[in-house]
Amino acid sequence: MSGERALIEALRGLAGHPAARNLDDDAAVLEFGGEALVLTHDMVVEGVHFLAGQDPADVAWKLVATNMSDLAAKGAEPVGVLLGYMLGRDDERFLAGLKEALDHFGAPLLGGDTVGRTAIQALGLTAFGRATFRPVPSRSGAKPGDGVWLTGAVGGAMVGLEALRSGSGDSLAYRRPNARLADGIALAPMVTAMMDVSDGLLLDAFRMAKASKVAITIDSGTVPLACPELRRDEALRWGDDYELLFTLPADALPAVAATRIGAAQTAGSSPLIIDGIAISSPDGLGFEHR
Questions:
Q1: Are 182 and 60 within one domain?
Q2: Which of 25, 126, 127, 189 is least surrounded by Cβ atoms within 10 Å, i.e. has the fewest?
Q3: Are both 174 and 126 inside the same structural domain?
Q4: Are residues 118 and 166 in the same domain?
Q5: Domain membership flag for residue 24
């Protein structure tokens, strides 16, 4: 077994509960007492998701925001979070950023665990949300003929990381990403499929197509870029943007500001078609752990 993709395939055999959704989504959906509880867990690791020496307050914000983005893709309202914290070089700064993020997203801290510091800091957060619409959106509902839509623009985090590394320019999009909770709630009753863009637009579109058993076509020239000077092919593959990628019936218009970037069609040999070029493998489309 090698890499993230192979591990997830192996884990599917252990995730037989309907709430797991065959691990096709970034969140579990548990029917509970007449409600649907949405559960998600994300980690951030020093040197992978944040820079060594980065402000711990920003690291805390990003840890919360990545989980909130998973809730947004399910149209869920935050209920609370559990923190898995490895002691760091400035725990007070982390706590200050954590409070800012939890207050901003309306997600109270409910508990968690702490461990001692090792050479590389790794942090985890489990978030709970209440679904505002049922059935809860998934990646797997896109139908042939649906339009493919994207909130916001891509590439902002890529620019932000370079600004942070160089010490000049606007690094906010990388340091403190937003999560489109209100947009997800507004879209949940309308969409046929929805997910957040965390690992790169092309890779996440490929995943949506595979889960939905359709092919997704994207006109790359229609995808909004965070900065006009960005290389489009790089921006479409870079992650950390936390926009919402979703599908709607052909004639439907979204309830939020968004751009139509393509369409779903009957599945063929390639799940993704970019500017007329068929893509049959996810390799090189975005970020994957090795």
A1: no
A2: 189
A3: no
A4: no
A5: yes
- pTM, 2 dp: 0.94
Residue at which a domain ends, from 131, 156, 176: 131
In which domain, by residue range, is 26 found?
A: 3-131
CA 39/CA 128 separation, integer angstroms: 5
Whether residue 93 contacts residue 57, with contact meaning beta carbons closer than 8 Å, is answered with yes
- Residue 120 tokens, joined: 């590389």
Cα 167 → chain centroid: 27
User: 165, 57 in Cβ contact below 8 A?
Assistant: no
My answer on whether omega of the bond before 135 falls inside 30° of 0, hence cis, is: yes
Write out the chain's pLDDT in tens, 290 residues.
567 778 878 877 887 788 778 777 889 999 988 899 999 999 999 998 999 999 999 999 999 999 999 999 999 999 999 999 999 989 999 999 999 999 999 999 999 999 998 889 999 999 999 999 999 999 999 999 999 999 999 999 999 999 999 998 899 999 999 999 999 999 999 999 999 999 999 999 999 999 999 999 999 999 999 998 899 999 999 999 999 999 999 999 999 999 999 999 999 889 999 999 999 999 999 876 55
Q: Which two tokens stand for residue 229?
A: 């000077």
